[in-house]
Amino acid sequence: MAKNKVKISERRKFFTDIAHHVGLGTMGVLLWAGYTQKAKSSPLTLRPPAAIDEKDFLKTCIKCGLCAEACVNRPQNFDKEGRKKPGTIKMAKAQDDVTIGTPFFKPRDVPCYMCEDIPCVPVCPTGALDINKVTNPKTKELDIRLMDMGVAIVDVHSCIAFWGLQCDACYRACPLLDEAIKLVYNRNDRTGKHAFLEPKVDPDVCTGCGLCEKACVTEKPAIFVLPRDVAQGKVGDHYVRGWDKADQQRVGNRKETEIKTKDERSKQAPADYLNKGLEY
Ligand code: SF4
Ligand code: SF4
């Protein structure tokens, strides 16, 4: 009888242990799922120069860190005493809101200095950073101006230049001086005497290096870089800039079958479909 009791309690312990471990395992899986979910990149993540499209980037980058290493070890990144400064590119850790292990940068911490030789790109062994994106097709040379990490946006409500105060910190910090950011004069109707000198970003020239964001004097930067697809809208193919030859050619080059100007609604008289559903 006592022997039997021992057997039962052993068996119970065995099953309790299993349940305990299964419970812990399940909890672990749940925690891990939550962790990986959290570790997914925010859509605001800025990638190193020449990064391919984000979806493909995540499939292609093997998280080797060679880009970050090349960035932190570039000769300009050492101070006069030979001490290494923090690099632009970081490899994401769990707390970063970026897919763990992938490279990213935060301009307010360390912007990209637009190195002419772009050392972070050619070292990438997988093409996640695509050298072709920063190679001039005619000269076959690296061209830093072809970099496209994002685009700078100005919050006109917190930019003090729009208050009428004199500030051109972002304009001066921009490596593409007077091209990517221009200062636009506007009359200050409040004082009647002064002019606003407002920074205006040209999105076709801006590379998203973030030197402006770093230089901005406001507590939270009034100019900041966002990934281009987050920052910009899309007009759609059916709008054409009549004054732009290239845009006109774009439409002219389209095949007849691609141009759809008629749909079901356009078969009806406008007064009919506009008044549809109205009772008199
Ligand atoms: S181009 Fe920018 S990201 Fe690349 S090495 Fe230079 S500072 Fe770093
Ligand atoms: S070098 Fe290329 S593959 Fe390696 S971490 Fe950087 S982007 Fe990813």
Summed over residues and divided by their number, the pLDDT gives a mean of 85
Kindly, what is the distance between the CA atoms of the first and last residues, rounded to a whole number of angstroms? 94 Å
**What's the count of strands?**
6
The major beta sheet can be summarized as: 2 strands, antiparallel
- Radius of gyration using CA atoms only: 28 Å
What portion of residues belong to β-strands? 5-15%
- Helical fraction equals 25-40%
The strand order across the widest sheet is: 1-2
Q: Secondary-structure element order, as H and E?
A: HHHEEEHEEHEHHH
Could you tell me which ligands this complex binds, including any ions or cofactors? iron/sulfur cluster
| Helical segment count | 8
Uncertain segments: 1-6, 18-38
- Which structural class do you get from the secondary structure elements? alpha+beta
Query: What is the overall silhouette?
Result: globular
Describe the structure.
The structure is a single chain. This protein is 28% helix and 9% strand. The chain has 280 residues and is α+β, with helices and mostly antiparallel strands. It has a domain at 42-146. It starts with a helix and ends in a 6-residue tail after the last helix.
